[in-house]
Amino acid sequence: MRLTRRIYCRIFQTVFRAALPVLPYRNPKIIPSVAGIADVCRRKHVDSVMIVTDSGIRSLGLTRFLEKTLEENGIAFCIYDRTVANPTIWNVEEARELYLAHGARAIIAFGGGSSMDCAKAAGARIVKPRQSISRMKGLLKVHKKLPLLIAVPTTAGTGSETTLAAVITDSEKHHKYPINDFSLIPRYAVLDYHETLGLPKSITATTGMDALTHAVEAYIGNSTTKETRIMAEEAVHLIYQHLKAAYENGSDKEARSGMLKAAYCAGVAFTKSYVGYIHAVAHSLGGQYGTPHGLANAVILPIVLRMYGPACEKKLARLARNAGVVDRKMKDKEAAGCFVEWVQWMNDTMEIPRHFPEIQEEDIPTMARHADQEGNPLYPVPVLMDRKELEQIYHEVKGR
Fold first, then answer.
1. Does the pTM exceed 0.85?
2. 189-210 burial string, b = 16+ CB within 10 Å, else e?
3. Alpha-carbon distance 245 to 373, whole Å?
4. Most CB contacts within 10 A, which of 53, 143, 184, 301?
5. Per-residue pLDDT tens for 334-346?
């Protein structure tokens, strides 16, 4: 990266970090069970809601208890269940139209990160009907307060129930980009482990490693605070304790509950301290090939940590020690190396691939350009990379 651009990125990140204490971050209020949603609606005088989910979740009957609860409490509802894995502008517009046609007054995002991203973006379009999704791309373009938004995660990984981000795909341009605004943070998050029991192994694995990526990128970046460091350490500790157990036994209540808390903690950490190039590259893969976000993050995480090398060694070692992944007496270089080995071991033992050989060489420059536009200057990464340098990550992810 050119020196002038490097200086600009670091100045931008320094100013943003200095502003953190006065920015209007907030954590969503926690509801311990789905049954508590009706009480919130009554207190807020909401008599009609829209549930945003996907067809898979609805076909499994996972929304039935919520539907029954709303019916018993006289709360009308409509359901948008056409959300796809990487939600598109089309999904957002369809959900918005259903909300308006039904006369809903609140949104319940029920599912994984895709459903939550769709719900957030639909809420933004509802309050800003004259502003397109593409014009909301980037930082602080929404401004207005969304309708009451309640998030019910059915996976433990995205942390979207805590964050100010929604990631939307422009399917025509094969481009995936984030929308970031404080108004997108849900007002309430339902952390009910019952909603994650029996989650398939592959989804448990990739969403769990997604949460790990959030915690790690937040921790090794240059915009951490005492709170975000504590939250990231707690997230990694819980993942170390519970992810393999949840993967091996989908009905393990303690493991499922622990992973929900881990995803929440990681979400709090990265929504304030931001992520890095792992996410920027993952988003471009999702936009170009439809690669599920958690899977992309899982594959990219150990590769980029190795590429960062000594630049993140000290912080990674401290994270590994404080989270209980390695012995506290272990030196920085050894501790950081052991942590990366543990990440790779987790991927391997949960049957997550090491590479994406399907990446096409001719697509790499375009994807690297998108990653560069997303990550610079916003992401406070340990090592700054420009478009050409980012291309190396794609080659490593593709496998040689």
1. yes
2. bbbbbebbeebeeebbbbbbbb
3. 38
4. 53
5. 999 999 999 999 9
